[in-house]
Design goal:
By secondary structure, the chain is an alpha+beta fold. Helices cover about 20% and strands about 25% of the residues. The protein is built from 5 helices and 10 strands, in the order βαββαβββαβββααβ. Strands 1, 2, 3, 4, 5, 6, 7, 8, 9 and 10 form a 10-stranded mixed sheet that branches. A hairpin with a 2-residue loop joins strand 8 and strand 9. Helix 1 packs across helix 2. The N and C termini lie far apart (about 50 Å).
């Protein structure tokens, strides 16, 4: 077996049934698409592991993967060769040889997601499938204040999908900010790891607060009650991006630039 290679992968999740390959089903996944492209470069089968498996319709901006190369290729060859064999909605941004002990998932210290909401009277024509949409005005300041109680290591049962396969509901949220960039409301959340649908469930409940349907203290009550059935509905997948994965400095992975690129306006406090 050759070198272990890490890559940053960006993808538009609209036309994929999630990240994870499903060989027994006739569906298109990001993992299978990427593996075929890398396999063409290697002229041999390639299997990749990712930092975070995203659901159908969810996007990757800073997804990190690793694979054990079955053939020796330069970093440039992996990037250019993969992209030449990938559809335009999946891109490899860099490739880097890493130590054999590196693992895209288990070596990660934290993951950061952004949930993007177009807060406009009419749904935007040019961002369909790339953002969520709420036509009524959202108070992002109230949403930000309400989210303070989610920081730290806590039991996130109230925001855990019934299908979640994690062994426990405890997660450590390092940061959670709600801001506005023009017509876009951004929920930015970083944690050591996430439960299934955790970000989208949090987004759904924070929007209820931002719309004035629930008071800010409701979020804390949901956390204390640990009952998913009394929280808001799961927010749509379209607005969710895996934007960054943090690793120990020893691996010297390239920094992920600010993004996705649709966030071109400065934040408004």
């Amino acid at each position: 077996m050759g070198s272990r290679i890490a890559c940053r992968v960006e993808y538009d999740g609209r036309h994929y049934s999630g990240w994870q390959a499903q060989p027994h089903l006739a569906v298109k996944t990001v993992q299978a698409t990427l593996e075929r492209a890398l396999g063409t470069v290697a002229d041999a089968p390639v299997r990749v592991s990712c930092a975070g498996r995203t659901d159908a319709g969810v996007h990757g901006y800073g997804q990190v993967v690793h694979f054990d190369a079955p053939a020796e290729r330069s970093a440039k060859a992996w990037v250019l060769g993969a992209n030449a064999n990938l559809p335009l909605d999946v891109r490899v941004h860099w490739a880097l040889e890493v130590p054999a002990g590196f693992h895209a998932r288990f070596s990660a210290l934290a993951r950061r997601y952004r949930y993007i909401i177009a807060n406009t009277p009419v749904s935007p024509a040019l961002l369909g499938g790339q953002v969520s949409w709420q036509r009524r005005p959202l108070d992002h300041r109230v949403m930000h204040a309400a989210a303070r109680c989610l920081l730290g290591e806590r039991d996130f049962s109230a925001f855990r999908a019934a299908t979640c396969q994690s062994s426990g509901p405890m997660r450590n949220v390092h940061s959670l900010d709600v801001s506005r960039r023009g017509d876009l409301v951004i929920i930015d959340i970083k944690a050591n790891a996430f439960l299934h649908h955790m970000v989208r469930n949090i987004a759904g409940s924070l929007m209820e607060v931002g719309l004035g349907r629930q008071p800010p203290e409701w979020i804390g009550q949901l956390m204390a009650g640990r009952d998913r059935s009394v929280a808001a509905a799961t927010a749509p997948a379209a607005g969710l991006y895996l934007v960054e994965v943090e690793y120990p400095a020893q691996y010297e992975l390239p920094a992920t630039p600010h993004g996705p690129l649709l966030l071109g306006l400065p934040p408004q406090n």
